[in-house]
Amino acid sequence: MFQNKKSSIFIVGDSTVSSYPVERAPQAGWGQVLNQFFTDDITIVNEAASGRSSKSFITEKRLAGVEEHIKEKDYLFIQFGHNDAKKDERFTDPFTDFKYYLKQYIHVAFEHKATPILLTPVQRRSFNEDGIFYETHGDYPKAIIQLGKEENVPVIDLGERSKVYLKNLGAKESKPIFLWLDQGKHPNYPAGLQDNTHFSEYGAKEIARLVIEGIRDLQLPIEKYITY
What distance in Å separates the CA atoms of residue 31 and residue 182, rounded to the nearest whole number? Predict the structure, then answer.
């Protein structure tokens, strides 16, 4: 069997990270566009899936699929939190089972001599009537940062980075980052759309830039393959 000798970045996460078919354009996750920031020396394997929490991704055997292919000198980028807060079978408590499930991703990476990278969940477009940004992820980002210290795993605080980015843009100017489409503007969404969670392709690229900045700040070896 052909063995990919290049370093790969495996990405696990939810709908803010995942890839979308052309019939869903201009929707895109940041994992879908991350390859645009690297040379061909890095392979991006985006396994993120819409609607998944750290728990449901595992119970659906999706992590097992990653484990079959991840290898030494690869990376595993882990971003959950959006759906872990949902009050259904996906729910995890931030400081107990959320951390328990995230540890399983970390251990898969370590067992295969790959490097796990934790990411706090990217922000929603959450502004109140006065244009003031507010946090929607509760204690999940705090639990991730805590776990990173406990397991000696690097953390890209994408939640904080995206918060600063969106606050600087403001309520109105941040709309193009997300799926805000006027009626009749796009054939895939003829009735228009107002979605404050999912990104446009432009927005996905802007969020991917924040991830790239995080890679650089951590001085990860793969930064030498960054093209931007």
Answer: 26
